[in-house]
Specification:
eight-stranded parallel beta sheet, eight-stranded mixed beta sheet, 38% helix, histidine metabolism, Imidazolonepropionase, 16 helices, single chain, binds N-(iminomethyl)-L-glutamic acid, binds fe (iii) ion, 16 strands, iron
């Protein structure tokens, strides 16, 4: 039994538990790093209340936000491409001309580990200031063993420097580096035989991702990367069906992927494959918005099939230069027509599942889960997705520690 002095109480709150809003008013008791009890106030007797340190009364509480898809470690800037796109040049065309991801690769290779860390820290801090307590960070702008590992090391260090759980993903198969022009298979061999083993040896990767697309890698090439990841015991995920339908999501699902991400071009067969595998559909409305995409992900089919839908920022220098998780809740509703409850679940319970962390109770407010909590100055949980308004985070609790407010 935890010591009395260690128990803290949030009382009379409106609680979104990661999947739904519970009848108000609720009480949440935290003991040390974990949630001990979640109950209607009417069930908490005087002795229980008296034994707890009072933390706050009233407000809306959600799990700490889980941003399950970011690329926030990178060098350089791509603001010039924004201007080109406004003049009508497409994202694919910029990539084919050697810009896009490859322009960030050049800048990231040139940057020292220290410089990358210094540039990424305020980006991660921006997510934290908006309530994120778990953030996934991908590599993918190094595209050789040394620079991919450099990025992952920066990601790990960020998680040590700031009060946030950082999950790292090796995205070696993000784009074809210039040294391997016309030799995609040769580069995939490097990813499988050198990059993945090196990342595993240093304990730097929690998962492996690929970009399955005509401007990146084929389904067959991505499948080889997954086989190598599996051989090293790493979970997998995929950027798939973002610009066209190659069937990458279905292939990833066959390999038991944690998630398929973007998926604007996903078809019914792809939806069924995700459902069967228990994979999460990660929706990225920031990239949809930034690229002025018009093809909507198959939301209704995903909903009908009961595929869990996560929402993430995709924070990156090209397709989603957006470091604002609650804005993504709004975009998920306005652009993709999710309900506010679906959007919130997408950045809490389902986001955690897309990272393979749901089993630990992450992304939920329930007894036994890590005490990652946000208390918001809003009237209802839905209002978080409604207004676009920074500064509403009243309190942020990470691993039982109040880190804000
Ligand atoms: O998630 N789709 C590919 N990768 C990233 C974009 C990275 C970039 O443009 O720098 C994405 O959108
Ligand atoms: Fe991405």
């Amino acid at each position: 039994m935890p010591s009395q002095a260690n128990r803290r109480l949030w009382r009379d709150i409106t609680l979104f538990d990661g999947l739904r809003t519970l009848p108000t008013p609720m009480g949440v008791i935290v003991a040390g790093e974990r949630i001990e009890r979640v109950a209607p106030m009417s069930e908490l007797d005087a002795a229980t209340l008296a034994g707890c340190e009072p933390m706050a009364s009233g407000g809306v509480m959600t799990p700490g936000l889980v941003d399950c898809h970011t690329h926030l470690v990178f060098g350089g800037s791509r603001a010039d491409e924004f201007e080109q796109r406004l003049e009508g040049v497409s994202y694919e065309e910029i990539a084919r001309r050697g810009g896009g991801i490859l322009s960030t690769v050049t800048a990231t290779r040139e940057a020292s580990e220290e410089a990358l860390f210094a540039a990424a820290k305020p980006r991660l801090q921006a997510l934290i200031d908006e309530g994120a307590t778990t953030v996934e960070i991908k590599s993918g702008y190094g595209l050789n063993v040394a620079d991919e590992l450099k990025m992952l090391r920066v990601a790990r260090r960020l998680g040590e420097a700031l009060p946030v759980r950082v999950v790292t993903t090796l995205l070696g198969a993000h784009a074809l580096p210039p040294e391997f022009q016309d030799d995609g298979d040769g580069y995939i061999r490097l990813v499988c035989e050198e990059m993945i083993p090196a990342a595993v040896a240093e304990g730097l990767a929690d998962a492996v991702d690929v970009f399955c697309e005509s401007i990146a890698f084929s389904v067959a090439q991505c499948e080889r990367v997954f086989a190598a990841a599996e051989a090293h015991g790493l979970p997998i995920k995929a950027h798939a069906e973002q610009l066209s339908n190659l069937g990458g999501s279905a292939m990833a699902a066959r390999h038991g992927a944690l998630s398929a991400d973007h998926i604007e071009y996903l078809d019914e067969a792809g939806v069924a494959a995700l459902k069967q595998a228990g994979s999460v559909a990660v929706l990225l409305p920031g990239a949809f918005h930034t690229l002025r995409e018009t093809k909507l992900p198959p939301i209704e089919a995903l909903r009908r099939a009961g595929v869990p839908m996560a929402i993430a920022t995709d924070a990156n220098p090209g397709s989603s230069p957006i470091f604002a998780p609650t804005l993504m809740l709004n975009f998920a509703c306005t652009l993709f027509r999710l309900t506010p409850q679906e959007a919130l679940a997408g950045m809490t319970a389902h986001g955690a599942r897309a990272l393979g962390l749901a089993g630990q109770g992450l992304g939920r407010i329930e007894a036994g889960a890590p005490a990652d909590l946000c208390l918001w100055r809003v009237e209802t949980p839905a209002a978080l997705a409604y207004a676009v308004q920074p500064g509403r985070l009243q309190q942020r609790v990470f691993n039982g520690e109040v880190t804000h407010g």
